Amino acid sequence: MAAKKKILIAGASGLVGYAAVRHFSSLDDWDVVAVSRRPPLELGRANFISVDLTNEKQCADIFGAMADVTHLAYAALFEKPATGLIRGWRERDQMETNLAMLRNLFEPLARAARNLEHVSLLQGTKAYGAHVAPIAIPARERNPRHQHENFYWLQEDYLRAKQHGQRWDWTILRPQIVVGEAIGGNLNVIPAIGVYAALRKEAGLRLSFPGGHPGITEAVDADLLARSMSWAATNEACANEIFNVTNGDVFVWTEVWPAIADALGMKVGAPEAHCLREEMPRRNAEWAAIVEKYNLRAPADLNAYVGGSFEFADAVFAYGATQPPPASIVSTIKARQAGFHDCIDTEDMFRKCFARAQQMRLLPPASCH
Fold first, then answer.
1. What is the pTM of this model?
2. CATH architecture of 5-128+140-178+221-245
3. What is the pLDDT of residues 335-346, one digit of tens each?
4. Domain limits, the chain
5. Mean pLDDT in the chain?
6. Side-chain-side CA neighbours of residue 277 (13 Å)
7. Helix (H, G, I), strand (E, B), or coil: what is residue 49?
């Protein structure tokens, strides 16, 4: 019988990390160690260790003792929503912090884990400069590196340098908009939409799209992304390769909005522009009343629940745009040719994610009045 593989999942309470914890914990041939500052919503069979990745000493003590780890899935992320989530993407201190976090974990782990086989690292469409300028359609992994400052490049270059002469390999995954479950994240539209919808529903209003003129884009289900991580971790074709990962279709927010409304037990209203980043925090008391009324597990404090995701929702909804922004489409041909064929209809993904949030009592039930 083959020995179990042991994966360390960094950023376990976040959108991607939590999905990875759930997925790898469901596989009999994996042992899972989940690390983050806060525990994830559920642990399954995973063992959890609270770690602050910005604390070099703490990281040295903890990861230096993990001699039996065979795989690393690095999904930790430092963002600055308090001073501007979108602006922070181009600030050097945020980039350096993200590099330091990876280094603090990996330096002691690489010394201790002599049987390390594989490292998965997350990037995204910012790798193609989607937050800077229009991108090539579709964006391909073989495209030259987009010339802008990005912590992706700092982490990738660090990992490439550390691999020299080592037995382990790496895979970089580049998802589109990730959709799933997490509390207090900064890039998660589910709680942002869910809170906005719950407030309107309590007021007897329909679910109006709050953005501007959205363009064509793609998303990826966090569960699908987690499955791509287990594929990459054990597939020789993924060694030292970069792959885009999406659901497999494209969408426009206004076109999927009826499915979202239906999943939340609401009717669609006429579009109404709302800056969620500015408006929603002022309604914290209303949300707290909803949490109490429906006995929700979600935090009554909006910042604790939604994090910086209201600002992220404004961005992906194209709030304030009077014409469609440039399309953001990536090719997933490379992953398919390498053997990863998983896909999900994006409307079905939203229905699934909202149903799960309701089941976990993170949002009111769809049938509530």
1. 0.96
2. 3-Layer(aba) Sandwich (3.40)
3. 999 999 999 999
4. 5-128+140-178+221-245, 181-218+250-359
5. 95
6. 21
7. strand
